[in-house]
Amino acid sequence: MSMTTITKVQGTAADWRQMGFYSIAIVFNLCLVAQVLTVGVAYFSDPSWWTIHIWLVRGYSGLSLVLLGGALTLPFSKRVRSLATSLPVLLGLQFCSIHLKTPLHLQVLHPLIGFTLFYVSSSLVHRIWREIADYSQPESTAN
Asked: What are phi and psi of 46, to 5 degrees?
């Protein structure tokens, strides 16, 4: 019986941190949406938006490290940890693909990595929500 009480107290303490982590994951995902929108406007309408596209990624890329740290310290599944770990890796590949000039023209991978980054970020948001929702379900008291 005391084991259940301890678990519930620890669960309550983890809830606000997990919700904060979830909020940061949503903000990161929304920043990726803004990235896609700014590059679209820059390409199809007004090239001055390209500067916003560049500064936006420089502004929010640190969130990937915050998410990585949170995933490694908070009680989440291995799936959440692997998704959060892949975010800074994919961002690093994004930077490399656009800045490294090689005869192989790796720049062509930049949008593909970007789509993968958006997929992983969206999957992370959905996975966190499922885990938080499952975690907050009341335990069965059947004996």
From this structure: -135, 105
Residues 6+ apart with CB under 8 A from 4: 139
Rounded to the nearest 10 degrees, what angle do helices 49-60 and 2-44 cross at? Answer: 160
The pLDDT tens digits along the chain (143 residues) read 444 433 443 455 448 899 999 999 999 999 999 999 999 999 999 999 999 999 999 999 999 999 999 999 999 999 999 999 999 999 999 999 888 888 888 889 999 999 999 999 999 999 999 998 876 665 555 55
What are the backbone dihedrals phi and psi of residue 47, each rounded to the nearest 5 degrees, phi first?
Answer: -60, -15
Structure tokens at 32: 């990726």
* Phi, psi (degrees; rounded to nearest 5) at 108: -65, -20
Q: How far apart are CA 135 and CA 9, in angstroms?
A: 13
- Structural domains of the chain, ranges and CATH numbers in brackets: 2-135 (1.20.120)
What's the predicted TM-score (pTM) here?
A: 0.82
**Hey, what amino acid is at 71?**
A
Query: C-alpha 61: how far from its chain's center?
Result: 10
